[in-house]
């Protein structure tokens, strides 16, 4: 069970204010549901968190903003936890208004370091009378009563498209608020794609771990198509609902093939692949924690065929080479500069 964030603990301080039918948007710990046994609806866009919450009595759990079980005008109190990306807050507030019954209260909370001060401005843009009702655990808690509900909520209206280009090949990529590197080609992914052009994979079936909006799979198959080569089906895995939605849309527009799956890591993924490519999301800020990388590489070894290839890009200062050698097999550097290194390893 995941550790309870400060914002979730701050909500428990005002649990007496949670009247009527309750909805929680952006839950990051199943421990919160255990502390609120009266139940309600809990939504998370993170596959791992949604999975942890699945079996709590009295709680309906929804995964992502397009879950078919999300019903309009159905809740008297809607709690909005602050997302990491500021752009996603507008999306989350819109969902909150669509879920709100007449006269409902919307509660927004988050930590100071997460940017709650700026988030309050977004709340007041739709609820000028919003007031702060508590401060605790480095968090602020704001309440907006009688917020005007939204008649409709269509996630497709939030989707935007942008064109990325690499090695002379371009593809259209879908984007939604909160998705990684929306609107641009991430530097690490760009380097990884260049190595795929210079040193192609020799595989007809590839797994893209942390696929995001489906850039790698769509680009690779477009690159192969333009050269008259046989296309490699590229399956994608990502933990975030918006990424899965965008990857499927990107694939459809690009005419790419491959199955896109929501999963927190590879532990529950079945199958083996002759090649795995990835720009893994295991580094944040300047703190280096290799435990997630070790677990990931251990899982990769179970899903990579013997003599199969791992192609991975990472920040150059991270100690990936020794870990890849330990868990996968012989490794070489296909590209290296001050920012990024692309590794190729062959499974023993």
Count of DSSP-assigned helices: 10
Gyration radius from CA atoms, angstroms: 22 Å
Structural class: alpha/beta
CATH class term of the largest domain: Alpha Beta
CATH-defined architecture of the largest domain: 3-Layer(aba) Sandwich
Per CATH, the superfamily of the largest domain is: Vaccinia Virus protein VP39
Distance between the termini: 34 Å
Describe this structure in words.
The protein has 348 residues and is α/β, with parallel strands linked by helices. It folds into two domains: 6-152, 3-Layer(aba) Sandwich (Rossmann fold); 159-346, Rossmann fold (3-Layer(aba) Sandwich), CATH 3.40.50. It is 30% helix and 30% strand. The strands form three sheets. A seven-stranded mixed sheet has the order 3-2-1-4-5-7-6. A seven-stranded mixed sheet has the order 12-11-10-13-14-16-15, sandwiched between helices. A two-stranded antiparallel ribbon has the order 8-9. α6 runs parallel beside α7, α7 (215-226) runs parallel beside α8 and α9 (291-303) runs parallel beside α10. It starts with 5 loop residues before the first helix and ends with a strand. 44% of the residues are buried. The model has no long low-confidence stretch (mean pLDDT 94).
